[in-house]
Amino acid sequence: MILVNNPGDWGHIYAPLEHSEWHGCTPTDLVFPFFLFIVGVSIAFAMGSKKENPATHGKTIFKALKRALILFGLGLFLTLFPEVFTKPVESLQGMRIPGVLQRIALVFFISAVLFLKVSLKNLRMLFVLLLAVYWALMTFVPVPGTGPANLGKETNLGAWLDRSIFTEAHLWSSSKTWDPEGLLGTIPAIATGLFGILVGAYLKRKDVPDAVKVSWLFSTGCAAVVLGLLWDLQFPINKALWTSSFVLYTGGLATMVLAMSYWIIDVNKYNRFTKPFVVYGVNAITVYFLSGILPQILSIIRINTVNGETNVYSLLYSGYASNFSPVNASLLWAVSTVLFWLVILWFMYNKKIIIKV
Length: 357
Fold this sequence. Notes:
Layout: H1 2-5, H2 31-46, H3 48-51, H4 57-80, H5 83-86, H6 88-92, H7 100-117, H8 120-140, H9 157-166, H10 186-203, H11 210-232, H12 244-267, H13 275-281, H14 284-300, E1 302-305, E2 308-311, H15 312-321, H16 326-350
Antiparallel strand pairs: 1-2
Organism: Pedobacter psychroterrae
Protein name: DUF5009 domain-containing protein
Keywords: Membrane, Transmembrane, Transmembrane helix
């Protein structure tokens, strides 16, 4: 998402680096569900021992709640920045409440509690139930004030619920009438987290040979993708709605990628190429947060040039724009941003600086 969220020019972006207009799935649409999936996998590894000891559940849940509140707060800060420092009272009036970090926070906390308190067998049933309930709500429940159930951007049940609870002032600024991280969509997003938990719990089993693990995980991933594509015929794959078919499709792909990575890196020890990913991964939330703030800081710093006053962001980007076509200049700026943060994160990694949320 560092690459996707930092084009030099939002008006010139290669199609694979954009989200789907509505139904469908681009490579960019895979990033968020993959992250929630690996959050679930991480829960299974990090809290596995605590699940077996009920005496530790209270302390673990409190720590999870604290982490979730911090993530939620960081998401709100990104929404408010930089207005929070210039007009704090006025900026709150139009503050977007849903968001990416906010959804991560909710999914992490709820998934963690469910993992600790519910057996794996029941988690499987709950996973299916969440997908089925969301499908039923979105396709059968009439939308108040609109009419029959539908999947339109502004007229679906989730959009109505968000407007009713948050009001249009606190929704995504690009629409004001619906939000891609809306409240109802949290239900299937939790299912994505549970998908990761179930995969993680299986992956950490010591009684199953590695080859069998990889085979089962890859087969499960393939099956989920096929089921997702079949369900797409009736309940379209849609990232903004986080449809049940989207959960299966992206979860299946994530499972196959994880199985392949496990086989190549952990089992066969081909790991020389992994350091850039590790460097980014250990400070993932940190770089996501900082990379969202830096462009705004550069945009508000004004400087005088021979051509008049401009901001630092525009001045830096002009070097790309004057030497490449608009779409390539935009892409190269995004790639440069990724490399810029890689250098910083590499230094942090070598110095063992890991900022945990």
